[in-house]
């Protein structure tokens, strides 16, 4: 499906694009910002059904991988004139769950030049809520439901602020395969699907009902199709009610097989998914006691675009996430700022040699301000405690690899570096990770006395797996303990084939 009102390629530098690698379809939207608002210019949608290729062992089939790569190659052609910073690509449930997702991401690089970010379920729910909140104003609280191919996202928020977020492992593709194989429909199959969905929803019900809402909103293809069918059959003029859903279920059961369905608003590519999507929506109505649901034509992609717009205006939600974590774990902000200042001072001197980016600087700075969050647990093994918190915390704005990278830097900010324990990233190369880690370790080490008046001016030069740190000889002589620690650091880095050179260090220790 393509809908173009203006060529997105006229002035590509003025446009931005969001790509959503969903479990059922891949979507691309291109937009521009006009007077602070987003104007959508171009949409593309391709059915891929990645989730259909995910087996019980969570391995993605070669056929599904090929389908995905073929669509990415088509998208790449449209996005050819765009700068990397103008495109954001988000992958959801299937690539979040697939054990061989790294294989897909590696092969994608050969046909698609833009980085693919795999996001958590909570982050997916947040983007969906933001898309709705920015697209359609509502003064009270609202519940947002998005039934995808592999997962269903739920969010409650007020204005643009989400208050509850959850992603449940139930989707129209996975439930279709499990409960309605070969399109077979029966009352028993519906009841089993509804029951399983209710069981999946049960853990979040009390929290969501306690938050409350004045409006319930459904987004994306499944809800839109159900709404269109209900309206087409004359059950409703627009809004969806539980009685409409049950009437549609009875209508579908009477048909016995999805392949023979002929309903207003039901396209061929949705025939095998309508029963599973309906079962999930009925379960949500049952447990959340939803009276009425309205459809909104905005979701994850629009949420991504609005966040890209915010970042262009230097409003990065990740700053708020980091600040929230600092407050929650009572971080010593004076020390955090010392370490961050030192790390970024060194970064500015070596970034060109190491080909580091502004985004690398942000991630390093956040790691430097969060490396002590684990003190809240225990000072012994603080690096492990801090990394655990950062790996498992809900950090809005961070994709999975960004969060994992910050946690990895913090995990190895002191003591031994176990190279085998450094994860393999898709968005980051190992030398890049090592460089950022060296800068953080040096910043922590140089600020171990937790004083503002102790460090001299720092000068650093760098090469491949090499950094030279220039420190005044007389100052080093006065800091014998620090000089000894720097020697230990040289040995620690040598074990990962990195050379730290500090002229005059050996003489200072001997002296």
UniProtKB/TrEMBL annotation:
Example GO biological process: polyphosphate catabolic process
Gene name tied to this protein: ppx
GO molecular function: exopolyphosphatase activity
Stated name of the protein: Exopolyphosphatase
Short name of one Pfam family: Ppx-GppA
Limits of the Ppx/GppA phosphatase N-terminal domain: 29-310
InterPro entries in the cross-refs: ATPase_NBD, GppA/Ppx_hydrolase, Ppx_GppA_C, Ppx_GppA_N, PyroPPase_GppA_Ppx
Keywords associated with the record: Hydrolase
Organism this protein belongs to: Rheinheimera nanhaiensis E407-8
Ppx/GppA phosphatase C-terminal domain location: 317-490
Superkingdom field: Bacteria
């Amino acid at each position: 499906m393509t809908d173009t009102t203006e060529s997105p390629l006229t002035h590509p530098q003025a446009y931005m694009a969001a790509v959503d690698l969903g479990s059922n379809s891949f979507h691309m939207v291109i937009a521009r910002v006009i007077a602070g608002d987003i104007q959508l210019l171009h949409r593309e949608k391709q059915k891929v059904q990645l989730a259909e290729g995910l087996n019980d062992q969570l391995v993605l089939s070669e056929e599904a991988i090929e389908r995905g790569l073929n669509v990415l190659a088509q998208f790449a052609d449209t996005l050819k004139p765009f700068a990397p910073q103008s495109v954001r690509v988000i992958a959801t449930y299937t690539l979040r769950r697939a054990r061989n997702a790294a294989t897909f991401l590696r092969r994608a690089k050969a046909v698609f030049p833009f980085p693919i970010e795999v996001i958590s379920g909570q982050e997916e729910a947040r983007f969906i809520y933001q898309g709705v909140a920015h697209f359609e104003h509502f003064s009270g609280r609202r519940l947002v439901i998005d039934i995808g191919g592999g997962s269903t996202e739920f969010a409650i928020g007020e204005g643009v602020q989400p208050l509850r977020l959850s992603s449940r492992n139930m989707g129209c593709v996975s439930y279709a395969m499990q409960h309605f194989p070969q399109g077979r429909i029966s009352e028993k199959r519906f009841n089993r699907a509804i029951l399983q969905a209710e069981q999946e929803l049960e853990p979040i019900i009390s929290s969501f009902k306690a938050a409350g809402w004045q409006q319930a909103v459904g987004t994306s293809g499944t809800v839109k199709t159900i709404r269109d069918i209900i309206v087409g059959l004359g059950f409703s003029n627009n809004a969806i009610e539980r009685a409409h859903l049950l009437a549609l279920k009875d209508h579908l059961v009477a048909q016995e097989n999805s392949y023979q369905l002929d309903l207003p608003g039901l396209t061929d590519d949705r025939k095998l998914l309508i029963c599973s999507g309906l079962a999930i929506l009925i379960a949500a109505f049952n447990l959340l006691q939803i009276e009425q649901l309205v459809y909104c034509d905005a979701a994850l992609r629009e949420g991504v675009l609005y966040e890209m717009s915010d970042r262009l205006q230097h409003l990065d939600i990740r700053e708020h996430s980091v600040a929230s974590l600092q407050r929650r774990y009572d971080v010593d902000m004076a020390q955090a700022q010392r370490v961050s200042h030192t790390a970024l001072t060194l970064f500015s001197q070596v970034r060109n040699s190491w080909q580091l980016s502004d985004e690398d600087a942000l991630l390093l700075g956040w790691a430097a301000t969060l490396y002590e969050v684990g003190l809240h647990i225990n000072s012994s093994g603080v690096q492990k405690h801090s990394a655990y918190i950062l790996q498992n915390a809900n950090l809005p704005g961070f994709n999975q690899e960004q969060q994992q990278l910050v946690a990895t830097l913090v995990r190895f900010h002191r003591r031994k570096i176990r190279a085998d324990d450094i994860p393999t990233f898709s968005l980051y190369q190992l030398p890049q990770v090592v460089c950022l880690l060296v800068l953080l370790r040096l910043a922590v080490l140089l600020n171990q006395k937790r004083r503002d008046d102790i460090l001299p001016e720092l000068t650093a030069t760098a090469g491949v797996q090499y950094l030279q740190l220039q420190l005044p000889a007389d100052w080093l002589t006065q800091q014998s303990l620090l000089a000894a620690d720097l020697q230990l650091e040289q040995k620690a880095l040598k074990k990962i084939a990195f050379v730290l050179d500090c002229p005059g260090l050996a003489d200072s220790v001997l002296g």
